[in-house]
């Protein structure tokens, strides 16, 4: 099971957003000062008892590599033993803050393949190139270090100003580095910074981190409530909090952690019940009407595929926005998801070849042809007066059935012109698959012309999702609404 699904299942099963920092750290986990120098065997017993106390009340464990490294080669053995103590249905996060020009590849292989760790904290300063070795592992995740609460870090994190700070630019930049299932954010325990990160990235999972005393401060209502208000998403989720270590030193650690978990859940419930986006309540769990492509829609917006301002359309009309799906080719993670979404539709259709409408849909059609191992052709936009002078590029047999791929349907004219070219060469075209149906009755128009249209998304779904996620204002939402009303015949 991948990291994200394992985490969500554990959160639901144990009704908990808590993780335990499971480290051979004298300051946090030894019972008294006499025990401050424990042997590796004693540490193993101590960490095993922490797992036993918490296994049914937390959603994950976080291991800080530094504490294990500090014990030398025996520490590495301890780490491997501790990994075995954690049940396989609870995800493990390795806190390594890793990323290095030469060794990211081998480090990612060690932790994900050999140690079977589910997620790792990473440092963003070497850029996307050095995070890619972590991101290419299917089902694994990274948490990018954004902020810490160290006072001396403020001068860097909040450069040049606290409102337009470096860490917020980092949060924005990482929106295109990976999906919310693949990439979360690591944030220090400061309610104001946490709130800014949450506002900038409503869909991202946040790993809250602090030192032992900051963790213990969470026991105070006056610390806990603002942190939850700042870091939870609109569903009262999306935040992983550390178990304060003082609870693990209590005689009945399980009861102490359970009570703390219940306090958090009570605050979550109060916060979310006030939210108008929650449609249905069952005990402890809020079910939203989930838009299956929500994360993809938010990423499309974040990478600039939806632009506001007056734009002339191919039909000559002027809309107050433009949807530019051509950008997706430059962001492989998003492009990959888009091809998958088209493929889901194509899997239910019968066809001999895939045709893309130039130019915007040629990369997508190529991606689909490779993914589905089906041949591709395309109708030329303009016929060359030299060379072969072909109207259709690629090989085909007369009478074959073609599924046509396009990016967005507005009037439907460009896709139908492309389909007519294919038909004039003796091919059969019935199915047209697009990523966005602008609305306005264009699907009916296709039907009247003998085509069956299929779409991944409608513009109405996109605008609704962006509005719910606070990406667009109510005025921008209304602009979409007005221009998607049915007008075509
Ligand atoms: O030019 C457009 O009308 C247009 C507007 C827009 O917001 N996004 C967009 O991609 N387009 C282009 O318009 C084509 C579809 O327009 P119709 O032929 O009117 O359906 C798309 O394939 C794009 O080339």
UniProtKB/TrEMBL annotation:
Keyword field contains Glycosyltransferase: yes
Keyword set includes Lyase: yes
GO molecular function per UniProt: orotate phosphoribosyltransferase activity; orotidine-5'-phosphate decarboxylase activity
Pathway in which this enzyme or protein is active: Pyrimidine metabolism; UMP biosynthesis via de novo pathway; UMP from orotate: step 1/2; Pyrimidine metabolism; UMP biosynthesis via de novo pathway; UMP from orotate: step 2/2
Residue positions binding 5-phospho-alpha-D-ribose 1-diphosphate: 380-381, 384, 406-414
Entry EC no(s): 2.4.2.10
Keywords (A to Z) from UniProt: Decarboxylase, Glycosyltransferase, Lyase, Magnesium, Pyrimidine biosynthesis, Transferase
Enzyme class: transferase
UniProt domain Orotidine 5'-phosphate decarboxylase: residue ranges: 17-163
Domain Phosphoribosyltransferase: start-end pairs: 333-447
Cofactor(s), by name: Mg(2+)
Record's function text: Catalyzes the transfer of a ribosyl phosphate group from 5-phosphoribose 1-diphosphate to orotate, leading to the formation of orotidine monophosphate (OMP).
Record note on quaternary structure: Homodimer.
Family recorded in the similarity comment: Belongs to the purine/pyrimidine phosphoribosyltransferase family. PyrE subfamily.
HAMAP family: PyrE
Protein name (Swiss-Prot/TrEMBL): Orotate phosphoribosyltransferase
Source organism of this protein record: Limnoraphis robusta CCNP1315
Source taxonomy: Bacteria, Bacillati, Cyanobacteriota, Cyanophyceae, Oscillatoriophycideae
């Amino acid at each position: 099971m991948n990291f994200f699904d394992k985490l969500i299942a554990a959160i639901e099963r144990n009704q908990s957003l808590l993780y335990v920092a499971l480290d051979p750290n004298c300051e946090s986990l030894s019972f008294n000062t006499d025990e401050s120098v424990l042997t590796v065997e004693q540490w193993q017993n101590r960490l095993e008892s922490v797992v036993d106390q918490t296994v049914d009340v937390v959603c994950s464990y976080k291991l800080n590599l530094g504490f294990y490294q500090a014990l030398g080669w025996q520490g590495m053995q301890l780490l491997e033993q501790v990994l075995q103590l954690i049940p396989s249905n609870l995800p493990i996060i390795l806190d390594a803050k890793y990323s290095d020009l030469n060794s990211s590849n081998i480090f990612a292989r060690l932790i994900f393949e050999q140690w079977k760790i589910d997620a790792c904290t990473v440092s963003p300063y070497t850029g996307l190139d050095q995070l890619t070795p972590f991101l290419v592992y299917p089902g694994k995740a990274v948490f990018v270090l954004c902020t810490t609460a160290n006072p001396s870090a403020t001068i860097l994190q909040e450069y040049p100003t606290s409102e337009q700070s470096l860490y917020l630019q980092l949060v924005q930049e990482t929106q295109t580095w990976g999906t919310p299932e693949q990439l979360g954010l690591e944030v220090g325990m400061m309610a104001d910074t946490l709130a800014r990160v949450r506002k900038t990235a409503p869909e991202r999972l946040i790993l809250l981190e602090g030192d032992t005393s900051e963790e213990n401060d969470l026991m105070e209502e006056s610390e806990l409530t603002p942190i939850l208000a700042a870091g939870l998403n609109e569903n009262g989720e999306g935040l992983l909090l550390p178990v304060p270590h003082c609870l693990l030193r209590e005689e009945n650690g399980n009861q102490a952690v359970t009570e703390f978990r219940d306090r958090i859940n009570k605050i979550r419930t109060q916060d979310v019940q006030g939210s108008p986006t929650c449609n249905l309540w069952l005990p402890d769990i809020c079910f939203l009407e989930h838009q299956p492509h929500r994360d993809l829609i938010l990423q499309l917006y974040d990478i600039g595929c939806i632009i506001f301002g007056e734009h002339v359309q191919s039909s000559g009309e002027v809309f107050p926005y433009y949807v530019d799906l051509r950008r997706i080719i430059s962001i492989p993670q998003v492009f990959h998801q888009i091809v998958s979404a088209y493929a889901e539709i194509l899997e239910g259709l019968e066809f001999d070849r895939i045709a893309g409408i130039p130019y915007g849909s040629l990369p997508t059609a190529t991606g689909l042809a490779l993914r589905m191992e089906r041949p591709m052709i395309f109708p030329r936009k303009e016929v060359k007066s030299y060379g072969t002078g072909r109207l259709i590029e690629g090989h085909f047999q007369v009478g074959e059935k073609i599924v046509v791929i396009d990016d967005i349907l507005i009037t439907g004219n460009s896709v139908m012109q492309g389909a007519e070219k294919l038909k004039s060469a003796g091919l059969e075209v019935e199915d047209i698959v697009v990523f966005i149906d602008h609305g306005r009755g264009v699907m009916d128009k296709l039907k009247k012309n003998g085509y069956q249209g299929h779409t991944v998304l409608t513009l109405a779904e996109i605008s609704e999702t962006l509005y719910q996620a606070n990406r667009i204002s109510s005025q921008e939402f209304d602009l979409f609404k007005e221009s998607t009303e049915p007008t075509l015949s």
